[in-house]
Structure formats: C-alpha cells, structure tokens
Amino acid sequence: MPWSDRIGEAVATFRGIEIHLERTSQTPGRRVEVHEYPLRDQPYAEDLGRNKREWQVEGFLIGPDYDLARQRLVDAAETPGAGELVHPYYGTHQVVLVGGMRIRESTREGGIARVSFTVVRADDEPRLPRVTQDTQRQVQRTVAEAEQAVLDDFEENFNILELATDRVAAIETGLQNALRGIESTVGDVTGPISELIRSPAELGAQILESIATVRDLVNEPGRALGVYDDLFSAGDEPPLTSPLDPEPRQLQMAAIRAGNNLVRRAAVLQSAQVAAATDWLAADDAIAARDTITAGIELQLTSEFVPANDVYASLTAVRAAVVRDLEQRGAQLPRLRSVTLQQPLPALVVAQKLYGDASRADELISRNRVAHPGRVPAGEALEVLGE
After folding, report:
1. Is the pLDDT of residue 289 over 70?
2. Can you tell me the mean pLDDT for 334-359?
3. Minimum mean pLDDT among 79-93, 116-130, 175-189: which range?
4. Which CATH number is 99's domain given?
5. Number of independent structural domains in the chain
6. Which site from 4, 82, 102, 385 is most exposed, i.e. has the minimal number of CB atoms within 10 Å?
7. Whose CA is closest to 334, among 385, 288, 384?
8. DSSP 372
C-alpha cells in the first residue's frame, strides 16, 4: 500500500476545525546535555530523557465560509486546557497549543487564511515536582525529641539519693501505683523499679520502655489508645509542700510528682506513636484518635505544675504534628455510617451486601465486636465504612 493510501486526504483537525495541511514537522530524539571539562578531550553526554512530543503544523482554511472557520479556530486556540488534534501523519492525540497560533490573511488571496502553530502532547506537559510532607515521620521525630526532654526533666526532679529508706519506699510505691494500669498488659513492672530506684537515668529509660511495650503487645490501635488514655492522669497527686517544710519532705513529694509526670507524658507520647503508625480505615477513627491525644497533651500542659520550658515546647510540637498528620490523612478516608439489619445474617453475607466484598467480614466483626460471625444481630446499629 503506497503512503498516500495510508495517509488519505492531507487534512488535520484541531478541536474539530478542519485545516488543510501544507507541511508539518516534528523533533523526535533525546534531551542530551553535553558537559565539557578543562584538560579533557572527550566530553560527557548526559541523557536527560526523551524529547517532548512536539509537532509543527502549517496549513490553510479555504472556501466561501473560510472566515467563519477562522473565527472558530481563534476560539479553539483561546480555549484553556488540552484539545484533540487529529493528524493524518501522527494520529489522534490530546495536545496543548504552545506559543500561540499564527493566522495570516491577504487581500491578494481571497477566501483563504494560512495557519501555523506548534502543539505538544498533553501527556508530555512538564510537571513540577510536588512537595509533600511525611506527616507520620514528623510525629515520630517530635516524639523522639519530647521523650528526651521528658527524661531530662525527670532526672532533674528525681533527687532521692540522700533520702531515708522509708521516704524512698513511699516514692517507689507511688511509681508502682502510677504504672498499675499497664501491669495486666506488660506484666510485672515493680521489679525493675525496685532495682533502679536510686538510678534516675536508668529508671526513667526503663519506665519509658515499659510504657512503649504496650503498643507492641496490643495490636488493635483503639485498645492501645485506651490503655494509654488511662495513664494520662495516672498516679496519686502528692500533697503540696511549702518552703517551710523539711527538705527531705520537699524532695520526696517532688520525686513522686516527677514519677507521675513521666508516666503520664510517656503515655501521651506513645499514643502519638500509635496514631502515626496506624493506617486508619475511617476518617472518624483518625479524628477520634486526634481528640484523645490532644486532650492528653492539654492535660499535661495545663496541670497545676506547669512543665519546664523545653518539655512544654516539645509537647506542643507533638500536638501540632499529631493534628497535622491525622487531619491530613483523615481527609482522604471514608466516613463511618450506621446500618441496622432487619434480620440476623452471617457476617460474610452482610459484608457482601454492604461492600460487594465478602472478604471484609472480619473488618465488620472487629469494628462492631460481633460475638459470632455466623449471626450479626438485627435491630442494632452497626458502624460501617461509607463510600
């Protein structure tokens, strides 16, 4: 088959307006940057990728109504966005006009308008890099900085080396009471406290580790946050002291308060870690986690004994990072909706009806704490993911 048969009539259209072709050209190839160096004979050619698909078109509009076609072509050239180019040589593509369209008319040539323009394939338009923030990593970074500030504050206020045994025992009991809420999850925490009670740095690190263990042992984010939520106000508040009290009593109460603060702040920070590490399924869950954590942080910031400057600043930074992370990720998630069954059904059937996917039965069971997967109860509101 000769080329003329493959191409047919030399007519192109841009946004539906016919243009009789005179000539056309393209510039295929690679984008190559040639680097030349002093005292070297051979240059280095750096390949930066394929050239954009750019085509130059020259043609004309002709006929008794050419002026009407010319005006339609002007409107097409001024229309924003990509438009369809149908070309006998290059095929059909979405293109954008580059550098405007040149339309020439002459009194010596009546009934004709000559046209020339350049287009580039829309798929080849340059895209600027998108800068996105890794909000989860920002939470982790701010938590790490806050943990150090919290530990430093604990060491500074846990001065018990000169205290009598009975006062140290009372401090130890206070710490054990503060950590009572995680014993059912992580096991005995009293042993390490007794061994390290006179080593503030090691004791503080051990308490942080014990509290962090919760998120390793509790796989469900909601349950882990619940455990930490119970620690946000852990421990019994020691009696207030005055400068007139004996120094040993002041040191004892300050140490008990320091232990309580460490447990509470560590719980807040670990809850932030849980939230950042979780791939939330629903926007409602992410926002609920945000509210729990920010309420815990607010409790620490507004306590009767205002935290030291570095602790205050680091907790504030964690709060901002958590809010940014959960709101940004939550905005991309579906919301929860409520569904009530008219009759009991197996979870597989309910998942198929709701989502068109029976494999999501486990999600339904877990979210609604269904007692038996073979019988999802009727008459009770179920939480399910919306579209």
Report:
1. yes
2. 80
3. 116-130
4. 2.40.30.200
5. 3
6. 4
7. 385
8. -
Do 118 and 174 belong together in one domain? no
Boundary-marking domain end, from 96, 124, 152? 124
Residues contacting 331, CB < 8 A, separation 6+ = 283
Sign of CA dihedral 57, 58, 64, 66: positive
The structure tokens 């729990």 sit at 292
Strands 54-62 and 11-14: unpaired
Poorest-confidence range of 153-157, 200-204, 252-256, 355-359?
355-359
269's tokens: 């920070």
**Helix-helix angle 347-355:361-368, to 10 degrees:** 110
Query: Are residues 215 and 340 part of one domain?
Result: no
On the question of pLDDT at 6 being above 60, the answer is no
Q: Which helix (H) or strand (E) holds 354?
A: helix 347-355
Q: Which pair of tokens denotes residue 280?
A: 């939330």
CA–CA separation, 341 and 349 (whole Å) = 11
Q: How far apart are CA 232 and CA 265, in angstroms?
A: 7
Q: Which of 141, 271, 149, 156 is nearest to 212 (CA)?
A: 271
Q: Are 124 and 257 in contact (CB under 8 A)?
A: no
**C-alpha to C-alpha distance for 216 and 221, rounded to whole angstroms:** 10
> Phi and psi for 67 in degrees, rounded to 5?
-65, -35
pTM over 0.70: no
Instruction: Write out the two tokens for 294.
Output: 């920010």
Tell me, what amino acid is at 25? S
In a shared domain, residues 114 and 154: no
